[in-house]
Design a protein that fits this description.
about 100 residues, mainly alpha, 2 helices, about 85% helix
Length: about 100
């Protein structure tokens, strides 16, 4: 099979998807910040200030989302390690106490 549960391709695809999502989070947050800053500057007539402020807020929001994604990825890997260690512990015992 091409994509079985134990296949390394599944792991690589999952990690690649997570990395792509992290990149999109940074880029989209910056674009949204620039969009709002530009439109608010045009409305209020404060040309460069709101663009810069909202751009920085977008960068901060993007990195915050990346940090949260990274924490989720770490939790997923820790849970996977715990499951594999529980399986190994269970295979070695005979069930006799």
């Amino acid at each position: 099979m091409l994509f079985s549960k134990d296949d390394k391709a599944v792991t690589i695809t999952q990690l690649g998807g997570t990395a792509g999502t992290m990149g999109l989070h940074i880029a989209s947050a910056m674009v949204v910040g620039l969009f709002f800053g530009y439109n608010l500057d045009k409305y209020f007539g404060t040309k460069p200030w709101l663009i810069m402020i909202f751009f920085l807020l977008g960068v901060i929001a993007g990195f915050r989302m990346v940090f949260e994604d990274f924490r989720k990825l770490q939790r997923r890997e820790e849970a996977k390690r715990q499951r594999s260690s529980l399986k190994q512990d269970g295979e070695g015992s005979d069930g006799q106490d």
